[in-house]
Design goal:
Layout lengths: L6 E10 L2 E15 L3 E5 L7 E4 L3 E3 L19 E6 L7 E11 L7 E6 L2 E6 L3 E3 L2
Antiparallel strand pairs: 1-2, 1-5, 2-3, 3-4, 6-7, 6-10, 7-8, 8-9
């Protein structure tokens, strides 16, 4: 049962002659609930929007582990790096973390062994795979 104040994911899509081109997901809070539709907004500064209840998924906020932190990569970990540069596709690299460079005043960097090559990537771009 959806009610005012509930946190939801509202789902939409972009369609064309070819079919569904893209799916859209918006995190929002419910403002008012009607019989089949509801009003919600993304944050306190955004506009209220109307959406069918059937395109909303309620999130159970009490089950969200807010105290969890991101796992920090350690030397020897198998890691994945994803880096996005303006105007280009995200670059993905998988490798073993071999070096961490933490120079004061500079971006923390790392070297990962990916196949036969050593790749330099920002440390903050890493997640641990194993």
């Amino acid at each position: 049962m959806l009610k005012n104040g509930d946190l939801i994911v509202a789902v939409g899509k972009t369609t064309a002659k070819e079919g569904v081109l893209e799916k859209h997901f918006v995190l929002a809070k419910i403002v008012a609930v009607g019989k089949n539709d509801l009003f919600a907004r993304e944050d306190s500064r955004s506009k209220v929007f109307k959406i069918p209840k059937s395109r909303c998924v309620k999130l159970k906020e009490e089950l969200l582990p807010l105290e969890e932190s991101v796992t920090l990569a350690c030397l020897g970990d198998l890691v994945l790096s994803i880096v996005e540069r303006f105007g280009s596709k995200p670059e993905q690299k998988v490798g073993v973390l071999m070096e961490i460079s933490d120079v004061p005043g500079k971006l923390k960097m790392s070297k990962i062994l990916s196949g036969d090559s050593m790749e330099v990537v920002p440390y903050d771009s890493l997640i641990v795979l194993e």
